[in-house]
Design a protein that fits this description.
The complex is a heterotrimer of chains A (583), B (272) and C (351). Chain A has 583 residues and is mainly alpha-helical. Chain A has helices spanning 7-30, 32-36, 48-64, 77-104, 116-122, 128-151, 154-172, 174-183, 187-193, 201-231, 234-286, 295-309, 321-343, 348-367, 372-375, 405-428, 431-441, 443-448, 453-479, 489-502, 507-523, 531-545, 554-560; strands at residues 40-42, 46-47, 194-195, 198-199, 391-396, 399-404, 567-570, 576-579. Chain C has 351 residues and is mainly α. The chains are: A mainly alpha (583), B alpha/beta (272), C mainly alpha (351).
């Protein structure tokens, strides 16, 4: 077999293996494995920590088996699997050796996460010599499996992937589903599905089967649906789309009722960030101004609301919320202009840093002792009254509508989100949106063509500021108080990550981004400590792999992928005619 | 030999001047790009500005459009002073331009490029758009229709409308830039080397187009050009710049025979 | 083509002028109040200035990393502050070991050299990996993309270190040989401060020599003038860029140890503020300009040290030190708005 593996392939293997090994070690030393080693995926069988570790050689094996660009290497299916196996062995061996070393020498002085429980977990409780063999073998196995996945026919591959994802998904939503099932008195179901915060074995098999089945049926099903829809006349299609949107709206509306308080709480948080993201989307996505200090608007909105509505604040006016709101929005607009005006002439990176500076100045000022008499210093401002009823207890005929706290707040927040999304959508499709696009493309030419860049940049800032302040106001009301600690640079970064992940300038993208980046950490509580780490990785990964976001705005995809324009072929009369390249 | 197929109209009488420049000077940290230039364009005329590379022609354009601020001198357009105006205000007043190296909004569609050109003549405000007021949608539809007409006017086939500007062939890109400039209903059109990079056939088409546009839209056109055939063929008056100064001005025949002009060009060739 | 704002009075100009006036008034009023109240003795001012110079030296070394990278790639390496942090954090364990075993005090020079080496090499490694993975693939992308990547990388590195080495801030062991004061031309100065300043000077001289006199240094200057022409002349641009990052990393690593000597405490988040301040210093001096980075660093260090007391001490503002960072950020904002080319500004190539 050795002759079939060329020198270049060997180097490639070594590289992939080395990267896999580094990733595995990284996961262990940074503490991710430890955080998740007790989170059951299938109780008694496997935990999330283990899944993480095993996924690395699996993916590495998959990559190693990919057809390389080296034409001299012939790789049949069996050879590919061997490649995967080798890569997995490398990763496993490195980890095994590491465990060996760590068991002999106490590394905790430097690498604080390498604790005895962790080592025991990784080595399955075996003595370190034996563990080395087992881990290496396991790594090789996963690598081989990854390669096997690659070489198997697409249907099987999709089925297996979908099945695994189904199992993971069902186990991850346990914190949401189980309490809700119990609340609704469906304990039988919840006991069937879950045990000790993970799936039961039976349930996991069920999920696996369902997942695989769904994948197998997806393609024909999808084709069927698509053919039917495309065959239908235009009017029917519009009606179908209308119904789909209506269904979506209804689902959003009844979500808190159905899903219980925990999900409603998460939804409220998602909503607040979504509102922030919609605002920042106008500044970054539409106008192309990278604002890293967006949290300043959030803070101003929250503090203004607190100052105006709380009887305990230094102003002590105690205005009702909806009277204070217009004043807050006005203040928001002015703040937007104040921050936007000085940065108008700045280039992209400088703009980012200056706005970051503004954000930090704001934070320090809010926290400072110097301004404590007015802003409350580190302790903030308390006693913000809520304009909403604390609970709703209604009997409408046969239905009983009951909502507390977060479930009540959910509605105004989402109403504002919907409004913001609608307004942003209308803006982007108007003359203003076009002007912003032109400014992003070529600022001087846009100016010369008649777009007042000054005005449009200021507009973007003002609108972004207003939305941000609105979210701040709602945040203040939700919490009942404001503390400067809530307004740090990480908020700005989180909102930015939401937009980058979802897609700059894309409203559906931003919605998806908010759900994923804000909602998911709530499901995986163990993640909380690593939230920013993940956001950072997401930013880098997105820029490297898919800068236009998950749900891109139509024009962006083409803007950001330089290399993908169509090829041009010169015709006889010297005219260049675009032709599709065969790829 | 005339390049333009239609008979050249006689130069308009110099009574109505649309653009009037006096003693325009631009100094850049030790380099004087434009020195005391006097210049006038009669309304509805086609005027060319020529001169060796580096003579200061594009700098002159940039001052007209407000991208650069003059060091001293005056610029009057339709009796309004342009000094100190921002470029978008100049566009609003009715001056539009194209660029030496094409500067389209590359990642926007062809139609969108033209519609941006129409930006100054549209009235929708942001709050009106946000509220979804019906006249906003009506304006959009009307502008879209008008933009298609501009495409027709410059000879850009409508089927390109949804293509990205950067994917157009070169000749069409030049036309698109022209369409974008025309979309703002300008009174004065500044064309910076509109036939650069074109073969004789395309050049002929472009010159015909320029003459036709002047006629149909009652435009005044100022051209920077290096192609002498174009200049001599389409211009009614020519101004010559060299080393930032105006060294000659007159009809094509006068310029052709002007010894200073010949020296400026030949002199460059001799030392080049 | 440059872009002009209209000359007539309008909203933007008003705000900018308002900003200028407010800042000037605050600075003058505050300074006058403090100086006339005589709250601080000349000795105090002197100590503040010396401290500022020491702090500024650290900023200058980090700023050099920013300016070198900007010189060749025209991008801000937002993650440079975390490169600085990684060196300091990693070398800490060596330092602690030396401290506990007594090596640190029996052979302070050797021990310190080893600690410096560990820190510098670690930082260099991080910088090189950073360039290779996060920046190189994005060389041709629109400007916003590498900036966002840099931010992401910064978060990733700092939080990874937080995971690996832990949340705790660590204290570097004290070096007995560096305790106490020196008397330099009649000015009392802490030995640690002296070491910091001297080391910084040595490193900066080494850098200038490298850039001016060696072949690689010349190649770096060529690449920063015009990447494409340099490539045409046979310079391996990729390798020069890696070298630039490596040198920036080395300097940042050294800065990390110097920082530890002055401030003692290191933690996973220590790269953020010094990173931004060093960037401010680089811009203040003129980004892309080596002498500028040094000048900017020293200036910022002194401003930050003296500033809070000068401007606010007299006005009875409680805890002026809290506002140290505000001063740095304000300088940053003001410089970028009003004089982005900095003091020794190099003019920027066209857009």
């Amino acid at each position: 077999m050795a002759e079939l593996i060329s020198g270049r392939q060997l180097r490639r293997l070594a590289t992939i293996g080395a990267v896999a090994a580094v990733v595995v070690l990284y996961l262990c030393t940074v503490g991710l494995v430890e955080a998740f080693k007790d989170r059951n995926v299938v109780t008694g069988v496997i935990t999330l920590g283990a899944v993480m570790l095993l996924a690395v050689p699996l993916i590495a094996g998959y990559r190693a088996a990919l057809p390389s660009r080296d034409p001299s290497a012939q790789t049949g299916a069996a050879q590919r699997v061997v490649l995967g196996l080798l890569v997995g062995l490398i990763a496993g061996a490195v980890l095994g050796v590491f465990v060996l070393i760590a068991s002999t020498v106490d590394l905790r002085g430097v690498l604080v996460r390498i604790s005895p429980p962790l080592l025991e977990f990784i080595s399955f409780g075996l003595p370190s010599g034996l563990a080395l063999l087992v881990i290496t073998g396991l790594g090789g196995l996963m690598g081989a499996l990854g390669a096997a996945l690659l070489v198997s026919p697409a249907r099987i591959r999709n089925a297996v992937t979908s099945a695994l994802i189904a199992v993971l998904f069902m186990s991850m939503i346990e914190p949401l589903l189980r309490p809700r099932l119990e609340q609704l008195d469906y304990t039988a179901i919840s006991d069937f599905l879950y045990k000790a915060h993970g799936l039961t074995e039976v349930a996991s098999i069920l999920c696996f089967v369902v997942g695989a089945g769904a994948a197998l049926l997806w393609q024909p099903g999808n084709d069927f649906v698509r053919r039917t829809v495309e065959a239908a006349p235009f009017q029917t299609r519009r009606r179908i789309r209308g119904w789909a949107i209506a269904l979506l709206v209804v689902a959003v509306l009844i979500l808190p009722q159905v899903s219980g308080t925990f999900l409603a709480q998460v939804a409220v948080l998602v909503g607040l960030y979504l509102l922030l993201a919609l605002g920042l989307n106008i500044v970054v996505g539409y106008a192309g101004l990278l604002d890293l200090g967006y949290v300043a608007f959030f803070a101003v909105g929250a503090y203004l609301t607190a100052l105006l509505t709380s009887p305990d604040s230094s102003l002590g006016i105690g205005l009702p919320f909806f009277v204070a709101l217009p004043i807050v929005m006005l203040g928001a607009g002015m703040t937007g202009l104040l921050i936007g005006a000085p940065v108008l002439r700045l280039r992209g990176d400088y703009l980012a840093i200056v706005t970051l500076g503004f954000g930090e100045i704001a934070r320090v000022l809010f926290e400072s002792d110097a301004l404590r008499p007015w802003l409350g210093g580190v302790q903030g401002i308390l006693g913000i009254p809520s304009p909403l009823p604390v609970r709703i207890d209604l009997e409408l005929g046969a239905t009983h509508i009951f909502a507390t706290g977060p479930q009540v707040l959910y509605y105004p927040i989402f109403a504002f989100c919907a409004l913001a999304a609608l307004f942003a959508y209308r803006l982007s499709n108007s003359r203003i949106g076009r002007a912003w696009n032109a400014m992003r493309e070529d600022e001087s030419v846009a100016e010369a063509t008649g777009v007042s860049t000054v005005n449009y940049k200021l507009l973007a800032f003002a609108l972004g500021a207003t939305t941000g302040c609105l979210s701040g106001a709602l945040f203040a009301v939700q919490l009942g108080s404001v503390f400067p600690g809530s307004f740090d640079v990480f908020v700005s970064i989180t909102v930015l990550a939401v937009i980058i992940l979802g897609g700059m300038g894309s409203i559906p993208g931003v919605i998806l981004g908010a759900i994923v980046l804000i909602g998911l950490p709530e499901l995986l509580r163990e993640f909380v400590e690593y939230r920013i780490l993940v956001y950072g990785a997401v930013l880098v990964a997105m820029m490297l792999l898919r800068p236009e976001g998950l749900i891109p705005n139509r024009g962006r995809q083409r803007e950001l992928h330089q290399a993908e324009s169509e090829e041009e072929v010169e015709t006889l009369d010297g005219d260049l005619v675009p032709q599709r390249s065969p790829s | 030999m005339s390049l333009v197929s239609t008979p050249r109209p006689r130069a308009a009488p110099m009574t109505d001047v649309i653009l009037s420049v006096h003693h325009l000077t631009k100094r850049f940290e030790g380099l004087v790009a434009n020195r005391e230039i006097d210049f006038e364009i009669p309304r509805h005329a086609i005027v060319s500005m020529i001169g060796p590379n580096g003579a200061g022609k594009t700098t002159f354009f940039n001052q007209l459009t407000g991208i650069i601020e003059p060091t001293s001198g005056t610029i009057e357009f339709d009796s309004a002073s342009l000094i100190g105006m921002a470029p978008h205000q100049v566009a609003e007043l009715g001056i539009a331009r194209t660029y030496q190296n094409i500067r389209l909004f590359a990642n926007m569609t062809v139609l969108a490029n033209v519609m941006v050109g129409r930006h100054v003549r549209m009235k929708a405000q942001w709050y009106e758009a946000v509220l979804g007021l019906p006249h906003v949608a009506r304006e959009e539809t009307a502008v879209e229709k008008r933009s298609f007409e501009f495409l027709d006017l410059v000879g850009l086939p409508r089927r390109y409308a949804d293509d990205l500007a950067k994917n157009l062939p070169y000749g069409h890109q030049r036309r698109l830039e022209l369409a974008r400039a025309l979309a703002s209903d300008p009174k004065l059109l500044l064309l910076d080397e509109p036939t650069a990079g074109m073969n004789p056939g395309e050049t002929r088409q472009m010159t015909d187009l320029i003459a036709r546009l002047r006629r149909e839209l009652e435009l005044t056109i100022l051209l920077i050009e290096h192609d002498m055939k174009v200049v001599m063929g389409v211009s009614e008056r020519i101004t010559v710049l060299d080393y930032g100064e105006r060294i000659a001005e007159g009809t094509p025949e006068e310029i052709r025979a002007n010894p200073r002009v010949i020296e400026a060009y030949l002199g460059k060739q001799a030392t080049a | 083509m440059r872009f002009r704002l209209p000359q007539r009075i309008n909203l933007v100009s008003t705000i900018l002028w308002g900003l200028r006036i407010v800042v000037t008034v605050l600075v003058l009023a505050g300074s006058w109040a403090t100086l006339s109240s005589g709250k601080l003795a000349p000795g105090d001012w002197r100590d503040l200035i010396v401290f500022g110079i020491a702090q500024g030296s650290v900023y200058a070394l980090i700023a050099l990393g920013y300016t070198l990278v900007y010189g060749v790639l025209f991008m801000i390496n937002f993650a440079h502050g975390d490169v600085f942090m990684t060196g300091a954090m990693t070398a800490f364990f060596v330092a602690r070991n030396f401290g506990e075993s007594g090596f640190l005090n029996s052979n302070p020079i050797v021990a310190l050299l080893i600690i410096f080496a560990v820190s510098m090499l670690t930082s260099m490694l991080v910088a090189i990996v950073l360039e290779r993975i996060a920046y190189r693939p994005l060389r041709r992308a629109p400007r916003l993309v590498p900036l966002i990547t840099a931010i992401g990388a910064s978060l990733f590195i700092s939080n990874s270190i937080r995971g690996i080495y832990g949340e705790q801030s660590q204290s570097y062991p004290t070096v007995n040989a560096l305790q106490g004061r020196l008397d330099l031309f009649g000015i009392p100065i802490l030995k640690t401060q002296a070491l910091v300043i001297v080391s910084a000077i040595v490193l900066m001289i080494a850098l200038v020599y490298f850039v001016e006199r060696t072949r690689t240094g010349r190649a770096m200057r060529a690449v920063s003038e015009d990447k494409d022409v340099a490539a045409l002349m046979g310079i391996n641009v990729d390798r020069i860029i890696v070298t630039t990052f490596a040198i920036g990393g080395l300097l940042a690593g050294a800065a990390g140890i110097l920082y530890a000597l002055v401030f003692n405490e290191v933690d996973w988040f220590m790269g953020f503020l010094p990173g931004i301040k060093a960037f401010t210093a680089a811009v203040l001096g003129g980004i892309g300009n080596i002498a500028g980075a040094m000048l900017g660093g020293l200036t910022l260090g002194v401003l930050e040290s003296v500033g809070p007391f000068l401007l606010l001490g007299g006005a009875n503002v409680p805890s002026p030190n809290q506002l140290r960072d505000v001063i740095a950020f304000t300088v940053l904002v003001l410089v970028l708005i009003f004089r982005p080319n900095g003091i020794l500004g190099r003019s920027e190539p066209g857009r």
